[in-house]
């Protein structure tokens, strides 16, 4: 994992005077902060640990505390959240000159941590250049697919139980690849089956279906043609008042992603920028490729056309969004096998499709 070298550096006793942590993966930033708290040896935390929110406190106050000698200890640790306030759009009067002077000549007995969150700071700013010279500018991106899987397996082993590859993939999918969510669910799974093997079914049973992740799980069931789960999940989502048109568009997005991933794979070369071009996490692209291998490119092209037809039917009033969604899910396996099916013609936009076994009424 990309953060392993950071942790080794801190545990080895090499501490920089200033750390700036940012990027979308806040869980990694929290791990680094915890390591710094341990490394600073705060025997009296209430005296040598300062926490500030820069949306309320000016940065010069942070610099002032960092200049204060530690009490009954060797180091003072000062943590400031809300670093995006230093971008110049804050109501708090931040004295950046004072901050620049501190970064240029930091206290030898203090460690200052500035948390940016997912805000992208202008790296041309003078204080940013100073941090890169005298401290650590560590950005925390979403882990690559290989890093994410390796991290989950490592955390599973550390907690003393086992998970099959299918269960690991399911957990990552349901959590959206967010480390904090995965860590919380791993704690729960370790209590459920200490020393045993967790299956995909166990993950489905125990992992909390957050609204977004519940939808992702349902999309996965549809594209894998697991119709029992797909229809049960569809009924559940509609009862939760999820918008049928939104669900249809999410299916279209996933099938389109599968098409691009499979096409890239079959072309014999890997475009490392493809996930960025498509606006998805690298692991999401890996999942799309695994799903896409169940289809041919021609089948995926046909599915995208069927989804486009459903979209057109909704917009022209030929079918309701709920009927179009239900018909697509129910008939997908039939049409992929070459079966004939024609959408019902109706002049009443409120009319649904004829009822089918397991279908959801419009």
TrEMBL record:
<dbReference type="GO" id="GO:0003887">
    <property type="term" value="F:DNA-directed DNA polymerase activity"/>
</dbReference>
<keyword id="KW-0548">Nucleotidyltransferase</keyword>
<keyword id="KW-0235">DNA replication</keyword>
<dbReference type="InterPro" id="IPR048466">
    <property type="entry name" value="DNA_pol3_delta-like_C"/>
</dbReference>
<protein>
    <recommendedName>
        <fullName>DNA polymerase III subunit delta</fullName>
        <ecNumber>2.7.7.7</ecNumber>
    </recommendedName>
</protein>
<dbReference type="GO" id="GO:0009360">
    <property type="term" value="C:DNA polymerase III complex"/>
</dbReference>
<dbReference type="InterPro" id="IPR027417">
    <property type="entry name" value="P-loop_NTPase"/>
</dbReference>
<keyword id="KW-0239">DNA-directed DNA polymerase</keyword>
<keyword id="KW-0808">Transferase</keyword>
<dbReference type="InterPro" id="IPR008921">
    <property type="entry name" value="DNA_pol3_clamp-load_cplx_C"/>
</dbReference>
<dbReference type="GO" id="GO:0006261">
    <property type="term" value="P:DNA-templated DNA replication"/>
</dbReference>
<feature type="region of interest" description="Disordered">
    <location>
        <begin position="340"/>
        <end position="362"/>
    </location>
</feature>
<dbReference type="InterPro" id="IPR010372">
    <property type="entry name" value="DNA_pol3_delta_N"/>
</dbReference>
<dbReference type="Pfam" id="PF06144">
    <property type="entry name" value="DNA_pol3_delta"/>
</dbReference>
<feature type="domain" description="DNA polymerase III delta N-terminal">
    <location>
        <begin position="33"/>
        <end position="137"/>
    </location>
</feature>
<dbReference type="GO" id="GO:0003677">
    <property type="term" value="F:DNA binding"/>
</dbReference>
<comment type="similarity">
    <text>Belongs to the DNA polymerase HolA subunit family.</text>
</comment>
<feature type="domain" description="DNA polymerase III delta subunit-like C-terminal">
    <location>
        <begin position="212"/>
        <end position="331"/>
    </location>
</feature>
<dbReference type="InterPro" id="IPR005790">
    <property type="entry name" value="DNA_polIII_delta"/>
</dbReference>
<dbReference type="Pfam" id="PF21694">
    <property type="entry name" value="DNA_pol3_delta_C"/>
</dbReference>
